[in-house]
Amino acid sequence: xxxxxxxxxxxxxxxxxxxxxxxxxxxxxxxxxxxxxxxxxxxxxxxxxxxxxxxxxxxxxxxxxxxxxxxxxxxxxxxxxxxxxxxxxxxxxxxxxxxxxxxxxxxxxxxxxxxxxxxxxxxxxxxxxxxxxxxxxxxxxxxxxxxxxxxxxxxxxxxxxxxxxxxxxxxxxxxxxxxxxxxxxxxxxxxxxxxxxxxxxxxxxxx
Length: 207
What we know:
Elements: E1 2-3, E2 8-9, E3 11-14, E4 18-22, H1 29-41, E5 45-50, H2 56-59, H3 62-68, E6 73-75, H4 80-84, H5 86-93, E7 106-107, E8 113-116, E9 119-125, E10 134-138, E11 143-145, E12 150-151, E13 154-155, H6 165-175, E14 184-186, E15 193-194, H7 195-201
Parallel strand pairs: 4-5, 5-6, 6-7, 11-14
Antiparallel strand pairs: 1-2, 3-4, 8-9, 9-10, 10-11, 12-13, 14-15
């Protein structure tokens, strides 16, 4: 689902019974109800909230989700400063109804394997856009929820606090591009792509 003024993509990963909510960007009441309605329509039980990173557009719905469901939030500890800057960012961008979320209580590291019901996600550390950015890779179904690392024919910003073009390029070429070419890349903004397509033509290769 695509939410808020930044057109951020929120994902629900499920096995038919349990689900995890990734990067809840739902800001308005209508967006929040759309998230709940989708989960109810699919008859799912949320069991975790996962964050790729802590930028404002990816955490707008964190408080709502945690207030609605008895679940915990997962994030890389290095991104605490990014997460804590959410209130200031909301003020800068005019999101006056942003509810400051509590700090996540579960910390992920590169190489962790998260299991929720029949869902298995490998955690890969991919800084550069944000200092504590991670992606969540499902080997069995060949997809990666990649936040703002790779985009279709593009890549994430590196001019925000904690960002670095050199680090981002390393994350893409050494971590993301090590995944199989057929891996579907589910992006934090815009449409999906594949690792194979981006290995051929992504402009990060020319940076």
